[in-house]
Amino acid sequence: MLLLVLLVAQLMVILDITAVNIALPSLAKDLRLSGSQISWTITSYSLVFGSLLLFGGRAADLLGRRRLFLTGLGVFTASSFASALAGSAAALFAARAGQGLGAAMLSPAALSIITTCFHGPAKAKALAVWGAVGGAGAAIGVLAGGLLTEFADWRMIFFVNLPVAVALAVTALKVIPSDTDRPRWRGLDLRGAVLATTSLAAIVYAITQGSSAGWTSTQTLGFALLGAVGLAAFGVVETRTEKPLLNVTRLADRAVGGGLFLMLAAAGSIFGLFYLCSVYLQNVLGTSPLMTGLAFIPLALAAGIGAHAAGHIVGRHGVRMPLSSAFAIAAVGMALLAHVGENGTYLRNVLPGMLVAGFGLGIAVVAVSIAILTGSRHDESGMISGLNSTGHEIGGTIGIAVFSTIAAGASGALGAAHAASAVSHAFVAAGILTSLASIAAFAVLPHARHFLPKLRLNPAAMPVH
After folding, report:
1. Using only C-alpha atoms, what is the Rg of the chain?
2. What average pLDDT does the segment 106-112 reach?
């Protein structure tokens, strides 16, 4: 029962990214969101979630795992209720940011409970199921989003969290072990957390507003500079903090630093793939939310097959060549999708590229995770694992910001029929990104002869199937 509670909580966190993707056109129409605003429905959630994951993991250790789990669940539930009632773009974005804050406490606390309450083979099985929930969540999310939007309303995506959260809270109080130690507030790197979040938010805002404000405008350059300076300050602060959120010197390791860069590219590409395909299917082809959800099942399956294959491929060939090849495969898929047109069809214009790109990115995400985690020492496995998760969420946030901005700038109105050309432009950009990532993986990551001995000494970095 304990594992079930933790898995349902994690699934709820994941669903509120993928399910909302399907509801975006209906939501945008209802709240009258512009092309540059619509992406913030996703990014306001994933930005806060991703930038506070390291902080959430540290807080679970210092404040108590059950305390943080229940607090995060409460914040997530209240913010879900506020999202469901939102009557304006600003209200929705603020509520979604609240959900991200709750998720940043809830998810690391749940994972920390698993690592401390399960031992031996039971722990390995629990972590394997945890990973499977992350992969299955995408498929479940698009189906749930399609069903709820089609037969009810996009607000039901948030309302459905309320009874689930109440049941989780009641059960959690019974099955999660109580925290025996008192909360320890000293050691929480609040300064680093605030710097990281505000800096990343400034960069994402500069990207999303660039096409409307002008890429060389004072506003765009000012926010981009503010974000860059903030991230530099974060690096300096972390080197002078006794217990930092991130030991920035570890980024010098080619597997860790190079892996983080490639995780940003992989997650940005797969988040963008979901977003752009959803926009094309619903806004151009007129596909219903339910049929759109069903249309994403092959993508989820292709990514799952790639993810399953990644562990075996990396175990034999390291990460350099497999990752370079995986990004090249994804680039081919993006090139196929760049041929979407106003009179296209799902079977001819979407499915082939979706399958190819999904398979390549499925390999890439898992292979990058192995690269990052293999570079960790035993005493910093939690921090490096948090860095890996942070890279995934922040990469997805930036990816959606970039691709939605390109699409909005190309067409001027995503809701119009000529949005096909806008989406095509964005897929071209995605193809360029994955091609550059393929080259970067070959140039930056360590050779198999150097990487495989490290991997054999750190088997925990390998996914469990």
Report:
1. 21
2. 86
Can you give 27-53 as a three-state secondary structure string?
A: HHHHHCCCHHHHCHHHHHHHHHHHHCH
**Residues in Cβ contact with 225 at an 8 Å cutoff, skipping those fewer than 6 apart:** none
CA torsion, ordered 345, 428, 310, 458, to nearest 10 deg: -150
- pLDDT recorded at residue 457: 63
What is residue 341's DSSP assignment?
-
CA distances from 235 to 230, 240, 242 (A): 9, 9, 13
d(CA 313, CA 326): 11
CB distance 206 to 224 below 8 Å: yes
pLDDT digits over 238-264, tens only? 888 877 888 888 888 888 889 899 999
Position 300 scores a pLDDT of 86
CB 90 within 8 A of CB 141: no
Is the four-CA dihedral 311, 315, 316, 322 of positive or negative sign? positive
Check if the beta carbon of residue 161 is closer than 8 Å to that of residue 102.
no
Task: Determine contact, residues 401/208, Cβ cutoff 8 Å.
Answer: yes
Say whether pLDDT at 463 is over 60: no
Above 90 in pLDDT, residue 1? no
Taking the CA of residue 41 as centre, how many other CA atoms within 13 Å lie in the half-sphere pointing to its CB?
35
Percent of the chain with pLDDT over 70: 92
Q: Contact at 8 Å (CB) between 141 and 14?
A: yes
CA distance 7 to 126: 9
Over pLDDT 90: what percentage of the chain?
36
pTM of the model: 0.85
Specify whether the CB–CB gap between 281 and 272 falls below 8 A: no
Q: Residues 370, 463: contact at Cβ < 8 Å?
A: yes
